[in-house]
Amino acid sequence: MEYILNNIDETRAFAREFAKTLRAPVCVALHGDLGMGKSEIARTIIQTLRGADTVVPSPTFTIVQSYDGISHFDLYRINDAAELVEIGLPYAIANDITLIEWPDVATDMLPENTIHLYITEHGSGRKIKIPFAGEGVA
Predict the structure, then answer these.
(1) Do residues 60 and 76 touch, judged by C-beta distance below 8 A?
(2) Region 101-126: what's the mean pLDDT?
(3) Local confidence band at 135 (pLDDT 50, 70, 90 cut-offs)
(4) Is 89 exposed, middle or buried (0-12, 13-18, 19+ CB in 10 A)?
(5) Could you tell me the CA-to-CA distances from 98 to 10, 13, 46, 126 in Å, in that order?
(6) pLDDT more than 70, % of the chain
(7) Rounded to a whole number, what is the distance in angstroms from the first to the last CA of the chain?
(8) What is d(CA 136, CA 83) in angstroms, rounded to the nearest whole number?
(9) Would the pTM count as exceeding 0.90?
(10) Residues 59-86, buried b or exposed e (16+ Cβ, 10 A)?
């Protein structure tokens, strides 16, 4: 499936609708370069599920933020997959709605049914591709 999002409002609308489909335990891997909107999508998902007034700081420096059954990881600064156990990733994957930015370091830990969102530039907006199981990303 592919979605073309022309601006931040469309990105947030996508994330709100996507959030409504999530039930724990589920893992969502957010792939994309810096500035593609991974954090904004995660923030909107969390606020949709936990309330619009929920403060959602980026976990870039804390690495993980938790919101009553939702875990938001930013693995940008993780270099060793062994650290993933220390920060609670396996527990979150088994129990929570788990949102992971920069998931590549965790590839071996992600469950088979992980939902992968590949976010790329598309003109002045974004394209989100959600491949079906076994489908490549082009």
Answers:
(1) yes
(2) 95
(3) low
(4) buried
(5) 23, 20, 10, 22
(6) 96
(7) 12
(8) 28
(9) yes
(10) beeebbbebeebbbbbbbebeeeeebee
In this structure, the chain runs to a length of 138
pLDDT digits (tens, 9 = 90+) for 33-80: 999 999 999 999 999 999 999 999 888 888 999 999 999 999 999 999
pLDDT at 106: 96
Residue 126 tokens, joined: 């974004």
